[in-house]
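Session log. Operator J.P. requested a structure for one protein chain; no other inputs attached. Running the standard single-chain path with token output.
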Amino acid sequence: MAARSSDSGLGLGLALLLCAAAACELGAREPAAAEPKPAPVQAPALAASAKAVSPGAEAQGARACSAPDAQGWGQCAGLRYLELLRGGAKADSALPMVVLIHGLGDRPRDVWIGEVGVPMRIILPQAPIPRGPGFSWFEFRVGDGDSAGLARGIATAAAQLARALEGLRAVRPTRGLPFVGGFSQGGMLSYALALGHPQVLSMAHPIAGMLPRPLWPREKPAGVRLPPIRAAHGDSDRIVPAAADRALHAHLKKLGYDAELREYPGVAHQISPEMGERLGAIVMTATSAAAAQ
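Structure written below.
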């Protein structure tokens, strides 16, 4: 696993995950798949809601969450998570929260973000299903060709993650709403959180992600604060084809969502140095804005 400091002009020594070959994630061994088509089976809808977390729900979420132990590990909403502190942050201070979601066969690892100049709390949730040396968020894969099954898995995992984010904000002092990013399965869940649970995050940065058509919104909900989506995808990705991400973004733009997709020529199913630098810049912008609140 290689790491590199961002040269985006921030001057904050942001070291980011740069995936290469098999080290990227076990999902790189999945077969290629065509752009997903509508499935005849009804899948769970990602119904965007503008409702704030009620005091009772927040208290319930707090009881379901534990603060991290001496090694940084805690539990929330039935998920293990690893907490990292950056920028000289103290655990009991109110901090911007950055949530980074791993992909298939991976696990929480301290390789995403190095030392930075802005204090922040990084949360690395762990998927619940054992898979090889790591874990998976859901059983279905893009290459299985089961859009409805994939949609059910994504929707279920996104709902659990949304509960975890609500609970974590209740037990960990937090400024603003969390920034959420993820790779592959984590990219799919970043999309699902932004579209189905917009109240729990400030911005989504899916990398090498997509959503099956059963989870595409039919319309832009009115009166709901929708987090911006800033996605990245390699145009040579054969595991999660960029065409699926491209089609989703065209649909979101048509509905009026604040969504942008940047494609990277020649990049396969991985996070390239350029993608890592953009992730760093987006994280720093989001956390600096949250810190000012």
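Operator note: The two ends are 35 Å apart (CA to CA).
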